[in-house]
Amino acid sequence: MRKLIYSMTVSLDGFIAGPGGEIDWSAPDEELHRFHNDQTRELGAHLCGRRLYEVMLYWETADEKPGAEEHELDFARIWKPLPKIVFSKTLESVEGNARLATEGVAEEVAALKEQPGKDLGIGGAGLASSCMKLDLIDEYLLFVSPIVLGGGTPYFPALDERINLELVETRTFGSRVVYLRYRRV
User: Fold this and answer.
1) Which pLDDT belongs to residue 63?
2) Average pLDDT over every residue of 150-173
3) What is the pLDDT of residue 64?
4) Is 59 buried (19+), middle (13-18) or exposed (0-12) by CB count in 10 A?
5) Phi/psi at 184 (nearest 5 deg)?
6) Which of 8, 19, 50, 161 is the most buried (most CB within 10 A)?
7) How confident is the model over 164-170, as a mean pLDDT?
8) 5 CB-near residues (< 8 Å, 6+ apart)
9) How many whole angstroms separate alpha carbon 93 and alpha carbon 4?
10) Which residues, other chains included, contact 161 with Cβ-Cβ below 8 Å and sequence gap of 6+?
11) Which residues share a beta bridge with 169?
12) Which residues contact 160 (CB under 8 A, 6 or more apart)?
């Protein structure tokens, strides 16, 4: 069965975006970008909420932008063909290799996990929060950035029950970002 993997950059105090939605503090350097490229290359599909989908539209044409770095071009080549499933109540259409989810989160994710293929990625706090509450996430990948935001969008929502996890991998990057990979036990 395919795993659902939640991966985001997070501040030391647990936020993926600042109080005004700002994410400028989370831009990866080349070393970290290449690591993200390698992780994304291993995915069979990516689940996105509307906001993350709209942010990631940049990558649909990033390879056409003059002056792009090789690691950015590489990510664009990985991201464009990767199937994306977009969960939105407001979008009527999507671009690139994306489709709008037609079922509810629980049904759609269960069906995707049953299909053969590589693991599934999920990003965006709202969609990931729904999946956490439905106990659908198998692995949590946190890229802890050395910054305290004091508020904003949390990586983890308030939960009714705790989630027991096991640390399976760590790495510290030159940018002082610490990667933590946990799986559900």
Assistant:
1) 86
2) 96
3) 86
4) middle
5) -70, 140
6) 8
7) 98
8) 43, 119, 120, 121, 122, 137, 138, 139, 140, 141
9) 24
10) none
11) 181
12) 133
Scan for tokens 């009527």, then name that residue.
92
The candidate with the shortest Cα–Cα distance to 28, out of 64, 69, 60, 57, is 69
Chain centre to alpha carbon of residue 23 = 14
This prediction's pTM: 0.95
CB neighbours of 104 closer than 8 A, spacing ≥ 6? none
Torsion from C-alpha of 5, 169, 159, 3, nearest 10 degrees: 20
Written as one letter, the residue type at 59 is W
Bridging pattern class, strands 178-184 and 139-145: antiparallel
Secondary structure class of 180 (helix, strand, coil): strand
**pLDDT attached to residue 126:** 92
Angle between helices 125-133 and 105-114 (to 10 degrees): 80
- Reduced to 3 DSSP states, what percent helix, strand and coil does the chain have, rounded to the nearest 5? 30, 30, 40
For residue 137, pLDDT beyond 90: yes
pLDDT in tens, 62-119: 988 889 999 999 999 999 999 999 999 999 999 999 999 999 999 999 999 999 999 9
- Nearest residue to 163 via CA among 153, 155, 175, 171: 155
Residue type, 32: L
